[in-house]
Amino acid sequence: MARLRFLAVAGQTAIVFVTARWVTAQIPQAAMYSGIGVLAVFAALSWWRLHWTWPVGENEVVAHLAVDIGVLCYLLYLTGGATNPFVSLYIMPVVLAATALSVWRLATVMILSGAAYALLMFQYRPLPFAHLHDAGSSFNLHVLGMGIEFATSASLLGFFTWRLALALRERERAMQRERERALRDESILAIATQAAGAAHELNTPLSTIRTLVAELRRMPSAAEFEADLDLLAAQTERCRDILREMVAAGTEPLGAEPRILSLAAFADDCRLRFGLLRPEVELECAVDEACRDLLARIPPGLQHALVALLNNAADASAALQRSLVHFAVRPDGDTMEFVVRDYGSGLTAPARDAAGRRFFSDKRDGLGLGLALATATAERLDGELRVESPVGGGTLIRLRLPLRAAENPAHVG
Description:
The chain is α+β, with helices and mostly antiparallel strands. It is built from eleven helices and seven strands. Helix 4 runs parallel beside helix 6 and helix 9 (302-318) runs antiparallel to helix 11 (369-380). The two termini are 57 Å apart.
């Protein structure tokens, strides 16, 4: 509205100048320029007011519109009142109020505009014209003014209607995203509830497997299966560690104190955990030299999200008989970026559309959990997750989070 007021000042000044110089109408220029000057000062004060931290209320907006109506009433009073074709501009404050104010404030603006219009029907200075000696010339000039007023009103109404429709579409998209996020979070909660029961039930068979592995090691022929038994024992221990972490994560609030680690140590920890989960995968891990030793606050859940993304990447690469997965950590201003890339066939169009918003997987045995959980973690930590199709094939995922360095951003070593 402040920008529109500046536009009104410029338009009114131009109309007065053109009318006085080219149309040669005898209008009170000094008085009209004074009224326009008052509106210009008010527009500058309004623009300055927008920089205050104090919020703008509806009553203040009504007061601003009342000033606009009053200045327009003064200018029209000097130039023919209701006979001036520009009197229809009184519809603009009503349109502005209808798009931004409650019904009672809108009614107030409508009453002010209607009262000003009614007053100008009876109280005004007739508009004399020079060099216009016949009624036809006066009529033509009136028609010209109506045409200018129509173009102005149509342009402003079209602009505000377009902006309103754009805002409504954006709100609908935001509401749709929120609905999808709520459905995804409900699904995650349901899975978490099931996981709690599964963690309790899995503890017993894992203990049985550990006991059987120990018994198998004592058999005479165990030597030829030593490597397989070592792998089985390591995976069993890893499963037990995962169950313990699930229980620990469930007993800690999401706002638990983050760990303070160097980014190089955190990346190495992710690499080791993923290596225990998928020892057959070749993981390329790269940490930017600019942030290797930076001490950062690592929030709870971030490592699980990254390992889930790495596991998805491993599955995608394996689908094309490849074992390579790339993992990188690099800074980007005040943002830390974690990059995971696979060398598979890339995401299908349905998978890309559903990426992170709901559980969806184009893998035969996929559950669609990894990307959804990573997206939920990124949103909880005020970050974002992007899915891209890099040159050379595969899928590249960027998990971007605000960089929260330690209190004293010292460097390790």
